[in-house]
Structures are given as structure tokens and as C-alpha cells.
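FIELD: query
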Amino acid sequence: MSGPLISVEDLKVSFDTDDGVVHAVDGLSYQVAPGRTLGIVGESGSGKSVSSLTMLGLTRSPHATISGKIMFAADPERGPEDLVSMNDDKLRRIRGNDIAMIFQDPLSSLHPFYKVGNQLMETVLAHRNVSKREARDRAIELLGLVGIPDPQRRVDQYPHEFSGGMRQRVMIAMALANEPKLLIADEPTTALDVTVQAQILALLEGLQDRLGMAIVIITHDLAVVAEIADEIAVMYAGRIVERAEANKVFASPQHPYTWGLLKSIPRLDSPRGEELVPIAGRPPSLINRPTGCHFHPRCPYVQEDHKRLDPRLEAVPGDPGHEVACLLEADVRARIWAGLASGQSPGELRPLAAGSRPSAAARAAPYPQSEGLSS
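FIELD: result
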């Protein structure tokens, strides 16, 4: 297949609540080609999961407002189809078949009253015209595929009889039951020890090579996406603030939020005893979002213009495949990151940002209205 398998175009998702409108996803755009892996990273509440649940139609409700397009090219003969405008019956045929999702918590995602095998069989029977015997054989095959020992016996056990890592493998088996073209993995390694994490990631990579599927992996753990992702999109307050090939995000990150994520994780090459540096402040309210750059209340390098101007994704000079939404000049960003990488603190590097001028495009695009506090 030529071209992207999934193409998200200016996706916006908001929810009307008693407290106000929650802008969960605000203008999200990305593409994923067959056989490629996109890692979406960010703090809790940044819109990562909502964007993927919307892809499956799981955020549709009378209180939700969804706009934009999600073009899915499952069948070359039909061409790309918009999942946002697709009716529920047609989307139900795609969900769990062409697009599958590994949900965050395997213990709550698996029904405690039903045997694991029956839950796997239900996934197969819903989309395939096969007998119960064939569905059971497929369930046993899937358990073996994801590395669960003695699948003939484990297929008749209940979820509580499996360890956390084994339940996660069952969720992967369920998602792969119908060999989807797109797999969404929402925090697939959360609460698992590092050994099991490595096994799960290796399993996903091996299955991707075998089936040729595209993967969107959602996580707050940069170590996970470093292991598996081809491209990384960093989300903050419902938007992508940086997007590039995975190696570029780690080698030359461009956004202060990305710097904060990278400096807050332990590294093997860091000096012994060096303290981790958390990102100051708290994630913003998606009801009363900060004016201007949404990250400005937490940014060590904020300037007065940043409280008024709303940055858009722009290509990094000299690197068109690398995009960032930041009002600092490119050379200033490069010097600040070089200083952070050498061990300097944000306080020491703050003077470098003084006088940095936003781009002409940013200066022409002030924030449309004041939603929240500017400081």
C-alpha cells in the first residue's frame, strides 16, 4: 500500500461538562504508514488517549463535539474513508477487526466472570464467520502467539489466575485476534516491571514484522518509545508541540516541554547521585487554558510575548522533517539544549532566552481569545 494507512487531520474533541467545555484534543494532525510505529507521549491529561478513542468512535456522545477528519485506508479499492463521519454500524465492523486497541488496564479490561478463552472467542466470532470450535482453536493459537505457556490449559482459566504481565499478553492477543491493519497500544507496559516491559515491546515488534501492521503507542514513558517508535509526537494540552523521527527527538529536542520530559527520566550515562529534574507546576486545565503558549506558565524561558502569542507547528530550520510549536528562536533553542545536555540548570540558561523574537508567522497569529490566566 502506498501512502499513509491512517491520516488524522485537524482533529478537535471537546466535552460539555457542568464546569465548562473541556478542550481534550485541539487540532491534532499526524499520519502513520503501514509497518511504521508512532509514539505519542505526554503527561496524563494531554489528550493522548482521547484522540485514539475517538478514532474508534468511543468518545461519541451527546455531550461530545468532534470535528476534523480521520482518514483510514483499509481497502485500496475503496480508498481512504473518514472514521469521524462514518456511521456506527460501519465503524463497528472496523473496530476490533481492521483497527484494534490494547487498553491501559488489563485487569479492568478483562471481564472477571468469564474465562479468558471465551473473551478471546467472542472477539473472533464477532467479525469472522467461523464455528465455536474454530474460534476456540484460534484463541489457543493466539495465547501461544503472545508467549503464554500451556495455552490449551490457560484458555479455560479466569483473568485473576493470570499475572499482570500475562493479562497484558491476553489483551495483546485479543487485539491481534483478527490481524488488524492498525494497532493502538495505550500504555501497554504501565505497572509492569522492566523485564516484562522489554518482553511486551519485543513481542509487539515481532508481531508487527510478521503482520505488517501500523502501531500507535501511547505512553508517558520516553524509554518505551525510544525502544519501539519510528516517529514521536509530543503532546501538551491537547496539541502536538513537537514531532520528528525518534532519534531526532532524543538527539536534538526543540521544545522546552520535551526538554523537561527528557531531563526528568534517569539515564545510565548520568553522574552517580545526580537528582532528576521535574517539570515545574502542574498540567493546565483544559477548561480554562492559559492564554498564548499553553506551556508558558511552566516554562523557564517564557517571555512576555509568549503569554499572548499562540505558537503553531513549524519546521525546524534545516530539518523539514522536524516540527515544533515554540516561540523561541531556533538558535536559542539549540544553545539552551546544549547547555541542558551538559548539565546546566534551566535557571542558569534562562538569560539565553532574553530578547528571543518569535517568528513572523507567530507574531501574526495572536491567541484568539483569553480563556484563562496569563501567568
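FIELD: remark
The CA atoms of residues 68 and 121 lie 35 Å apart.
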